[in-house]
Task: structure prediction
Amino acid sequence: MDVMGDKATLLETGRFVQPSDRDEAGEAVEEARQRLAAEAGDVEAMSVLGAMLLRRGDLDGAEPQLRAATAAGDRAAANNLGVLLHQRGYADEAAGWWRIAAVAGSAAAAHALGRHHRERGDEPAAEYWLRQSAEQGHVLGAYALADLLEHRGDAAAGEEWMRAAAERGHREAAYRLARALDRRAARESAGKRGTDGGVVDARSVDTGPVDAGGSDARVSGAGMSHAAVSLAGALDAEASSSGGPDAGLPEAGSSDAGVPEAELSEAGSSKAASSSDGASSDGSSNAGPSKAGMSACAEAEQWYRQAAARGHRRAALHLGAILEKRGELKEAGRWYLTSAKDGEARAACALGFLLRDAGDTESAAVWWLRAAQDGDGNAANALGALHAERAETQTAERWYRAAMDAGDVNGAYNLGLLCAEQGRTGQAEQWYRRAAYAGHREAANALAILLLQVGDAAGAEPWFSKAAESGSVDAAFNLGILHAGRREEDAALRWYERAAAAGHTEAALQVGIARLRDGDDRAAERHLRCAAGGGSAEAAYRLAAVLDARRPTPPAHELGEPATERSECEEWYERAASQGHRRAQVRVGMLASARGDVVEAARWYREAAEAGSRNGAFNLGLLLAREGSEPEAALWWTRAANAGHGRAALRLALVYARRGELAEGQRWADRAVSLGPSEVAERAARLRDALQEELSA
Result:
């Protein structure tokens, strides 16, 4: 017999023994005993026998017993007769018997009658009877009433009754209460971010150093890897919606899922049996967490935990996500595994991500495959990305298509990325367009980049704008680059500021550079700190330069006395230098030289010189010359002069003049004149003329 709802209302009574504790022979004996008593005219036995036969699915045998007991005034029999008639399709007649039982005080019948009215669209009548049931402590009545009130938009009253049902052990109510609390916490968090101007994690792609004019700023997001949306992101998106895709939808096969069609009540009892005492069938307490002094997030977690412990697979999924976000990966994995084994595809997908992050790619692929075969687009995307990393492009494409067929727009975006990597620009554009039209903001950004690369700036700008307005931080930064390229500095700065406020490192650098141009050092410092903290070597160097300009002249110290204290600007120079910034490396070398640390200075000069810095090569030459290694110094000066360093050319001219190689000296002096700067050119011209006189003598 397929009876939706909580059969515990029949089984948890003192009159019936749990099926798991009673063998078939015992059931037969009990049935025979009740049948003998019923034949002797015992009304209670008729009701009990009818309930037993109804539970077993013997409707023909149950009906005469229940009708006889009902005629004798047994309200439980009237309720169960309604259940039987409902199963046979006689809904109106069933409602008549439920009404009789409900008026007589049966909470179970009131619940069934309320369901009947709601199915027919009579919400006032449904609310009346469901409230009658709920106020008598009937857990399913409380849940059904909460569902009705939420559907009608009365969220506060709905939550109150949902909490009542959850506290009495209704797992679907516990799950839905947790979802409501989750959404409330998300709204509060969003409101707080809006008020505080908090930074959003945009996961943008950093694009390297940018010069003061912004002309070298590269398009952001052009090299993104294939996307597989993490579970946390999917659940966050779900929590931010008004109800979420599964809010209020019961799990298949759940004994307490949704609002039951009807239920069996205790025969011969003064009230319908329910979980009104707050105890589960195993005797454990159903009392949920107290909301006093507890945040919405913490309370939601507790309700997820209670529902998950009762076998609710989506609650286990959400609990796993909460634990994963908190870093409790082992317990998160256990809940994901529980949920996945119960058939939750998203949990199988999340377990795959957890295993991948732990380095177990093969096990991750097994769970992704399981989830993808169950229709999870995120898992299909993850499999596609895995095969793409292995250069198995055909298999990757197949999984991306499977993701797209499952309704995951990331599939189209990833197909675009795959085609772009293979140089199939036309196909890449088609897939990007498909994803962009479906609202995928990074696809819109990628499409704009593609159009920009083929010279269609006019076609790219609307897509950048669409992506930026949808929240793409990379697109906002790219719009800044686009406007800067047109010399529209004000418009460029607005987009840079928008991207910087959302945490984009290179955008913060551009804003800092703009503020430096305007002479606003304090605002520049603030933005440069953000960019430098985000890993920009250029920002770290520029920040150090700003701080360096404010630094008072350090006091002189005795020769050989170590200067151990490093200023903040030196720390930023060193951070930039360690990231390969050549000008910072030269500056760190100069600071080390000023401290008398020749070895450290030479190390940094050499790193800068080998990376192509002409100043580094020149300074290394000076250091070597002072240490008596003029031949090696000449080699570095030659490298610097060939790169356009005038002072290095002048030094070479002097070296060759001292050696008596006048023609070579004259050649380098002439080169120094052409390279400058002016004071170097003047000295080099005098030296050149003197060497010319010597050669002419």
